[in-house]
Amino acid sequence: MKPLAIAAVAATALVLTSPAPPSRAGEADPVRAAKAPPGLPLAGRAPSGPCALRTLTPGVSEGARTPRGYARSSGTVRAVTLFIDFPDAPARISTRQRYAEFFPAVPNYYRASSYGRLDYRSTPVHGWIRMARPYRSYGIRRGSSFDPRSDAGYHAITREILDATDHMVDFRRFDLINILATPNAGPPATQDVRSVTFAGASTGLDTDDGVPVKNVSFIWSRQTGDSPYRVLSHENAHSFGLPDLYYTGRGRAVKTPVGHWDPMDEDWGPSNDFLAWHKWKLGWLAPSQVRCLPGLGVRTFTLTPTSVAGGVKLVVVPLSPTRAITLEARAPGRLDHAVCRPGVLVSSVATDLPSGSAPIRASDATPASAGCYTKDPNVTAALTDAPYRTGQRCTAAGVTIDVLGRTPAGAWRVTVTRRPAPAGRAPATLTAAPPP
Predict the structure, then answer these.
(1) Which of 63, 139, 223, 396 sits CB 3.0–4.6 Å from 228 for a disulfide?
(2) pLDDT tens per residue, range 50-94
């Protein structure tokens, strides 16, 4: 096999094995990053109670309990970031330029979305790792697996990466592995999206330190829009246990049942924040910020938008051990660039639907509308005006949601009425209904 080449090995090894000068934002030495900085907000506890829906599989899902093997999603999380190019696709930029496409943007994004509860630290190993063979010989396609029996694909690429870095990287110090490929390797993302994450279970490879290689994200090409770094936020979120929200099947076009309300559905185009349900699952909400309505009755809640810190962020109405209705308020903010109709977003959650099969579906308060954010083809326009506003009503399975109005501070007041569900009706078919 042709020997691997990596530039600036001596300098990189020094960074990883001895104290280093103060780093730039988004970079950190793994030793000095061992503790969260003073003032980091306490993480919310893992979801519990009747609204914490059951986790059915060891893979990514909307279940409240994230199985073992995935990376922690609150507190200090450390990533090592490596760079690869190919003989037939040599890098045309420096690794520092490639790194700057994602950092410090990704740590800043997670800090804002988690209300400071996720302190994401990345240590780059600068220098392109030249793969032994041309890019095309590895057979990378969308959906390519990590087959340890294969001498091609991601198994071969990762084995070569370990050969080049294992002697200088202590992988025991890291929760995530990021592989940033030179953007000229493979087709543009506008033609074929190939970025992928292998999360949770081991890939079948171990480092020299005895660490199973897992929670590794490969980023190819470049995304479009005003925040293209979010492809890494999306991929790393798989390592935190989140599934894909879009739907795709054999011979079918991709469908976006949540649209631009969460980057696990659409991470292209303008920035967008995570759903409140995901913030709860990831430990970014305190128990006092979640309201559960498991029984019959009438309750009124005040929801503050997810774009601001503090206040109640999520109302959950469980319909079964694996299904629920969720309510949250959305408004324009630092991460929500495309919110053109602030209001109450109502969604259905299903933990018995796997990743890539629409486990969350947003209810559209204006189903006959073409949407209010129509200037970007990367945004599903029809769902941009999905939130419910004053006087509007949503119904499903004996649950009626009435939006009462908006407070002067920008919060939304809603009343949830729960009665026995009609027999034979689907448990989570949300419908915009005429006001009372």
Answers:
(1) 223
(2) 999 999 989 999 999 999 999 999 999 999 999 999 999 999 999
Element (H, E) at 219: strand 216-219
Cα–Cα distance between 320 and 56 in angstroms, integer?
13
- From the number of C-beta atoms within 10 Å of its C-beta (0-12, 13-18, 19+), residue 11 rates as exposed
Paired tokens of 21: 């000068």
230-239 and 105-113 are packed helices; what angle lies between their axes, rounded to 10 degrees? Answer: 60
Residue 250, pLDDT above cutoff 70: no
**CA dist., res. 257 & res. 346, Å (int):** 12
Q: Which two tokens stand for residue 306?
A: 């997810």
Nearest to 387 by CA among 275, 265, 254, 268: 275
Q: Sheet holding 297-303: strands in order across?
A: 297-303, 412-418, 399-406, 393-396, 431-433
Residues in a beta bridge with 178:
81, 217
- Nearest alpha-carbon partner for 82 in 3, 190, 4, 21: 4
Question: Which residue, among 318, 334, 323, 305, has the nearest Cα to 413 in the 3D structure?
Answer: 305
Residue 352 has pLDDT above 70, yes or no: yes
Q: What is the pTM of this model?
A: 0.89
Dihedral angle sign, alpha carbons of residues 185, 190, 191, 195? positive
- Token pair belonging to 414: 């809603």
Neighbours of 134 (CB within 10 A): 12
220 residue type, one letter: W
Closest to 129 measured CA to CA, from 101, 175, 167: 167
Give per-residue pLDDT as tens, 306-324: 999 999 999 999 999 999 9
